[in-house]
Specification:
mainly beta, 22-stranded antiparallel beta barrel, 6 helices, 7% helix, Maltoporin, Chain A, five-stranded mixed beta sheet
């Protein structure tokens, strides 16, 4: 630790970052940006009634993170991500990377999207957080609340739409980065963007590895991403992408009951192809997507116990077609109609070392849906928004999903929003068909979980948009939650959550900016990974070629263990983290060298998010990035 501190002290005297130009300042300050996740088409953020947070490329770059989710956990009010170590989330027992929004998320109730296409493992229904790579992301749009009107199942608590990078400027640009840090953590990245004529491409490769801060907690991953586009003419363009991730995660087990050989060997992939049309009054797209996975999991054993006699294996898929078209035939009006089809499922089995293979499940589910959404602007002061979705599933039947709301702009810089929306989550194959534990026997008659969300927000900007703030209040009423009763899963659970969210940004000077967010959450029952209070504040100062970032995050009222049979076993955590980054740039942003160093948890706070998995104390990383 002393050597690391001395190294960081030396680097801090010469380190570096990216220059902050006026366009970046505007993108960080102005909360009124264009979004596409709410209505499928580009609309002003202040004209849609939903609560939407936008994290742009500059904010992602300034974090020097290779994984995307930790950035979102800081920057988005009401959103919390579980973690268990210095890097890597893993899957199966002891994994992290669960995303909660407003206390809703566990069990894949927050839908992760790549460019609007749903991502989850077909057998167990969960997202794969290790595949979300920061260097491949242009921006992220987060709907804080249900997004099931457009995106269907699993968008019950919210939507995280990861919009991937495209190279839009003429010519070529290449970036390479190397990072080293605590616990032999190494991170490597190289990407290349190329644009000539009507053709564009973006290609990247990432590799992360670490020994971990506990015995048997090694992790390594290699990600590859390709995004290609071609503009056929002024009205049509076609694009396609491919993302692959191969990773191995070692789960050390709870600190009081460590495990040996609990290893997950995972391959994940996703690909899509789409054609878009753009006219003055009509626009839309047709897309097909396919994501898949191959999982080999050794459950391991405790010291002195007998190794597991089998390895769990599964392969899964999530295939779909999306078609939507938007019309702007009347002044101030937009009308979008869409059709979705999804086929998801997979095959799981136990490969026994000593005996025959044991089948677990081999099923698929078909879902087809249609939706319409309309928005009308009146007198440049009021926007009315309403829509409905009808979805049919081969597993549980039909669902109707309504949504309505308004956005009122009474005077310059002011926006008042109100909305009502419904979200739902389909039961997974595990819940429907896999009786893998005696106290949670599967039930093929399960219905979707659902919730109603009511919210009201007020936003205001001052000082020529250099200062912006937004306050949101919400109330959630959920039902049909899937719980175990007398050894079988049933739809019996009900919950309600309520709270407030605040976010603010202030560009004090051209080279000095500040942003903060706070969320308060009340739940009528204990919920893991849903803190009562979540606060973040960060400042960025860029004198000349230097850039300094300092931020603090405080979490309180976080349940890390909930025992539904004995509440006295429930356990809460409170902690505060101090993080800093310093950097120095040689040359220009388009062609130059950047040196940087950063420290996380600088006060060495002791805390845990996943029960039994203490987080590392102070962690330091240093690196160099070159652009040419």
């Amino acid at each position: 630790m002393k050597k690391e501190l001395l190294l960081c002290a030396g680097l801090l005297s010469v380190v570096a970052s990216y220059a902050t130009d006026i366009e970046k300042i505007d993108s960080l300050v102005n909360l009124h940006g264009v979004v596409v996740t709410a209505n499928r088409i580009q609309v002003n953020r202040n004209s849609v009634p939903l609560s939407i947070s936008v994290i742009n490329r500059a904010e992602i770059e300034s974090s020097s993170e290779s994984a995307l989710l930790p950035v979102l956990s800081q920057k988005v009010p009401g959103l919390f991500v579980t973690q268990k170590g210095i890097t890597g989330f893993g899957v199966s027992t002891g994994s992290a990377g669960a995303v909660n929004i407003r206390g809703v998320g566990s069990g894949n109730k927050v839908l992760m999207l790549f460019d609007g296409q749903p991502q989850w493992a077909g057998v167990f229904g969960h997202a794969l957080p290790d595949t979300y790579v920061a260097s491949d992301v242009e921006r992220v749009e987060v709907i804080r609340g249900p997004g099931s009107l457009i995106y269907g199942s699993n968008a019950m608590g919210g939507v995280v739409n990861i919009i991937t990078r495209q190279h839009t400027q003429e010519g070529r640009r290449t970036q390479a980065r190397v990072m080293f840090g605590s616990y032999n953590t190494q991170k490597y990245m190289v990407n290349n963007g190329y644009n000539v004529g009507n053709f564009s491409s973006f290609i990247s490769i990432n590799h992360d590895r670490t020994d971990g801060h506990r015995p048997n907690s090694e992790f390594h991953i290699t990600n590859g991403f390709v995004n290609l586009g071609y503009k056929i003419d002024k009205h049509y363009n076609v694009s396609g992408n491919l993302s692959l991730a191969k990773f191995k995660n070692h789960n050390p087990g709870e600190i009081t009951a460590p495990k040996i050989d609990n290893v997950m060997d995972i391959l994940r992939g996703t690909t899509s192809l789409g054609i878009e049309n753009h006219y003055d009054k009509v626009s839309g797209a047709f897309r097909v997507f396919y994501n898949w996975g191959d999982h080999d999991i050794n459950d391991g054993y405790r010291e002195g116990a007998t190794p597991s006699p089998f390895i769990f294996r599964s392969d899964d898929h999530n295939t779909g077609i999306q078609f939507y078209q938007s019309f702007r035939l009347v002044e101030g009006n937009s009308f979008t109609a869409g059709v979705d089809y999804k086929n998801w499922g997979g095959h799981a089995w136990n490969d026994s070392i000593k005996g025959p293979r044991g089948e677990v499940v081999d099923k698929t589910v078909n879902e087809v849906a249609g939706y319409v959404i309309m928005q009308q602007d009146l007198f440049d002061k009021l926007s009315l928004n309403a829509g409905v979705r009808y979805e049919h599933s081969s597993a549980y039947g039909n669902q109707w999903i309504p949504q309505t709301g308004f956005a009122l702009r009474l005077f310059e810089g002011n926006t008042i929003k109100g909305s009502f929306s419904k979200g739902f989550r389909s039961p997974t194959l595990r819940e429907l068909y896999i009786s893998y534990l005696p106290y949670s026997k599967a039930n093929p008659d399960l219905l979707p979980e659902s919730m109603l969300n009511y919210e009201l927000s007020v936003g205001q900007s001052f000082l020529d948009n250099r200062f912006s703030a937004e306050l949101t209040a919400f109330y959630i009423d959920g039902k049909n939650m899937i719980s175990a009763v007398s050894g079988q899963l049933q739809n019996i659970g009900r919950f309600y959550n309520k709270g407030i969210e605040v976010e603010a940004r202030y560009q004090i000077l051209s080279n000095l900016g500040f942003d903060a967010n706070y969320s308060y959450l009340y739940t009528n029952q204990p919920i893991e990974a849903a803190p009562s209070n979540k606060f973040y504040a960060g400042a960025t100062y860029s004198p000349g070629r230097f850039t300094f970032n300092l931020n603090v995050q405080s979490i309180s009222g976080l349940y890390v263990r909930v025992d539904n049979r004995d509440a006295s076993n429930n356990l809460k955590e409170n902690y505060t983290l101090l993080n800093a980054r310093a950097a120095y740039r040689f040359g220009t942003e388009q062609k130059g060298l950047n040196l940087f160093v950063k420290g996380e948890n600088l006060t060495a706070a002791r805390y845990q998010i996943n029960f039994g998995y203490p987080m590392p104390k102070a962690v330091f990383m240093g690196g160099v990035e070159v652009t040419f």
